[in-house]
Amino acid sequence: MGHMDVISIVSDGFNVYFPMAMLALCLATYFSVGSRLLSLLGFQQFVGDDEVTADLVEEGRELIKRGIFIISLCLLDDCHCNCIFVYGCA
Fold this sequence. Notes:
The chain is an all-alpha fold. The protein has helices at residues 8-30, 33-41, 51-77, 83-86.
């Protein structure tokens, strides 16, 4: 792979520890360690593909669309009020 001593960070073991870290991350993703950890900690509502989770995600998307729409209206109206907190220009 060439001379690894040119860059001190690489020569200090990066070529050994980085592949092991990548393998650990890949295995954690494959075995859903993050989801299992969240379930273990009691965050079941954010894990899974049930109907409630889909409803929460859709509600979040609608809130983002509404916020972007309000901000774009305020920018188009060229008002000088604080539109984000007032929800419209007076």
